[in-house]
Amino acid sequence: MAWRPILRLTHALLWLGALLAVALALALCVAAYGIPGEWVQGRLDAALPADVGRLTVGRLSYRPGGGLVVEGVLLRAPDGRILMRLRRGAVGIRLLSLAPLPDRLDALELNGLYVAQIRYAPDRVVEDTLPPPEARPPFPDLSGLPLPNLRAIPVRLADVDVLDIRAKRIEGRLTAGEGRVHAHGLHGDISGDGRQAVEGDVLLDFRRAAAEVSLRGFIDNRALDGLWRALDFPLIGEYVANVTLNAPAWGDCTFTVGFNKYDNLFNLRADLVSTEGGAYLGIPFDEAQCTIRCRGIWDAVTEIGPIVARRQGRIAAVGTLRFDCPADRFTFRAEGDGLSPRECLRLIDLPFTALLPELRTQSPPLIRIDGSLPFLSEQTPERVTLRGLLRAPGPGVLDRLPFASAHTAFAMTNGVFALKGLDLRLPHGGALSGEVSFEIPPSPDYALLSAAIHLTDASLADLFAPYGMDALTNCVASGFIDLRGRTDDTFPQSLQAEYDLIVNGGLIRRLPLFAGLTDLLADHIPGVSSFTDSSSARLVGTADAGVFRIPRFSLDGNLLSIEGPVSYDLPNDRLTATVNAGNFKQDTLMGDLTRWATVPVNRFLWRVHVEGPIANPAWRITTILNTVLDKARFWR
């Protein structure tokens, strides 16, 4: 019958429709719930060379309006280390197109992208010279990577962690093809609150195995730690780690870096401005700006400068740092009047600055300094070069010595730090000038002090007050002192000196040393202390192992003079002297007229022995006069 073929055709169409419906349902289920990554593992293994690593995918699925979705993407190195991890990625696909699938991509969204940082053993030896080609580990050829042809498709990344550089959100456009991937028009929110906005471009050129990056915006310097480790720049990373910022700095940065560090490809320029302050090695600043230039990895030369630091709205210091790896030199120069001397030395970060005398000023002095020291090898004192100038117009303290103003040039060569042309004006009058040097041994536990000092009417109140001897308000000293010794606990025992000093201004009455003498004389001769107000002393001698010897000590008063050999043991605080007393001042008319007539009497009667600590020695008349005066007091 004629209707039977029609019935058979209808039956077949119904079965075909049912099969298509089932197949479509299965396809939609598979697309919605995904397929295991193992189903495409063979294609992934064929696309990625084994010496690069192994790429695996947890699940693939398709979402209407969301495109192709991949989850659990993992890239491992041949040794099993995780190189890259992606929590979820979505790729928009144009369905109504006959182009190959990779060329039909029109959007990209990545969530939870992680690119592992390079981790080095902390005790490893950092290579500082480029090894020969045969000694370099092999690096995979990336020029043949199968990249899709993309034409500025929108790209969005969330929760990104690349080389420890993190961002909450990054948006831009992506172009790819012919061995290049270009992410341009990028806008990033690092912190997620909009305070660290960054924009820029990133170009990955797999044919050259290099990346070109341009960034502008607010950058936290700690976010660059991963970059220095990836480039194997641990020393640069240490210097950057010395900086702490109160808020991210604004920067304009461009750099080119090779994927393979043995290509020695690295060029960087960055302009940075910190407007909310921070600190370097604990030294605070209110604002700072600098330019950084760097080229090369193995023969790297880095220049940081000019660095401009501001405090309280004014420029405190301007400087430049240069790291030259081929020459193994770190050079620097700086000038400013807003940092203390100790802060300037701290910025250089020399290991032996604690051995140098501390200089404190009421207001920051003018300082100019430049020099060089080893960068890669050990920074021993003999390899450090310094030169500079210091001018402190206001009051301050050098070690414990107060001054009203100070001016000196300084230099360091061959392990010797020297103050040259030192000129200190003292608060109570007079001046101290000369040269002071500190020879620092290779293992700096101490320094060898050498000084040639000239005193011009220098106030003893300023010279001795730091040591508890403040009774010399009106006494001044003129002459010279040459001394040498170690700046450690052995200083008194190691002290050697030569000196020729004249001290004027009532020494007898005001110095505690002579209190015992005036008491002794007043006990025997009432009213004699009133004649000891005006006196002067001459000290000419040497010191060895901390023992001062004055072969002919002389001290002149109005009606009394003293002369004789004196020695003082500084380490043990022991004064020993046997002196003769005379009449009137030496080198005066009355002194000359009476001295010759009274010499026999003075030597016979007024010989005095002194012994004990310098602050309170015992004075004793050693002649027959002592016996006579004692008997006279007894009979009274």
Structural features, described:
It is a single chain. This protein is α+β, with helices and mostly antiparallel strands. It has a domain at 509-635. Helix content is 18%, strand content 47%. It contains eleven helices and 37 strands. The chain has a 31-stranded mixed sheet that branches. A three-stranded antiparallel sheet has the order 12-15-16. The longest helix has 31 residues, at 3-33. Mean pLDDT is 77; it is low at 527-532, 588-605 and 627-636.
Taken from the alpha-carbon principal axes, the silhouette is elongated
Distance between the termini: 174 Å
Assign the structural class, choosing from mainly alpha, mainly beta, alpha/beta, alpha+beta, or little secondary structure. Answer: alpha+beta
Largest beta-sheet characterization: 31 strands, mixed
Task: Please give the share of residues in helix.
Answer: 10-25%
Q: With helices defined by DSSP (H or I, 4 residues minimum), what is the helix count?
A: 11
Question: How large, in whole angstroms, is the Cα Rg?
Answer: 42 Å
